[in-house]
Amino acid sequence: MNVGMILDKTFPPDPRVENEALSLIKHGHQVYLYCFNFIHDQPEIEMIKGIHVFRQRLPKIVYRLSALAYTIPLYHWYLKRSILVFAKKNDIQVIHIHDMQVARSIFSLRKKLNLPTILDLHENRPEIMKYYTHVRTFPGNLLIFPSIWKRFEFKYIKEADRVIVVTKESREYYQEKLPVTSDKFCIVPNTVRKEFYNDFELDEVLINKYKDRFTILYLGETGIRRGIPTAIESIQYLVEKIPNIKLVLVGSSRTDSVLKDMVAKYGLYDYVDLMGWQDFALFPSYVMASKIGISPLHRNLHHETTFANKLFQYLAFGKPVVVSNCKAQMNIVKAYQCGLVFKDRDAKDLANQILKLYLDTDLYEHLSNNAMKAIEEHLNWDKQAESLIEMYDTIITNRNE
To answer: In this structure, are residues 64 and 80 in contact, taking their beta carbons and an 8 Å threshold?
Structure first.
């Protein structure tokens, strides 16, 4: 079957889109990906790992209008013709929409396309938008309304043939809000491919840098809502009990100045490394060099219903995790007995959980073994993508009836 994926960003990179596409290709489908080219530095048509990539040139000023996608639909009016041409030219048989931003363009074309439509919700976009600076400040606070995005999200979930979500907690949330049954949803978490932890080049310099430290690792965006201030604050309670402790933050955000000020305030220069964004190829080495992986997310509706990719990256290398009590990640940790849970924004509780793993080597080894077992047997991409393949098999069966 010819699958038409619609992505409102450049490609590559996008690990979720790539993983889904490669799994579909592996099972005999042809995947055609419509995406953007902002600065005209990539070929219009390209084959990447078997994915037929079609890039639509898009002025950045038009892309900026995507923030108003559900207020003033100029963005969608601009895209509709090129998407229609893409679908007809490649004999697309099913449309797979990646996230909400571009969804309005597709659903406004449904009668013309007359194709099965899958809505792939990478996150609860209306909820997370409430925390975006450009939405909370002038002029965005007068033009961008998460409540309107929410209304359209609910509308398109009802109209889509199938909906992909990243957690069962997300499915439960939508079922509570909407008259839809569980069989409409397909759960596909952002887990890791086996290549991530089986086929990588180890950076010995990085490993040696932290070999004598009890390293606590955080991978990803370092915004305030991710709980990084809590992580930094927790270190001040641990430096006397774990003299060789080191918190390593690999990532960045607009609020990194706040984090730097906190390190200075608590005098933690020797105990916290702010590494900024690093090449993804180094992630396995950072995880290998660490003792514990953390995900200290603040509790909110978005974080309660999604997983951070970092969670699976830590587990893949047998690193016990310490996570805040956001529902989705807490449930994973408890189900697979692969880490400990602390109360979100409670730095002392986070410190206590880290200290448990430092002092109790038997507990550490038990959780470490469970982490590797969970990834190898249940939480790797190949296993989790089975529901995606089954969903497509069902669509094929329905088309042939």
So the answer is: no
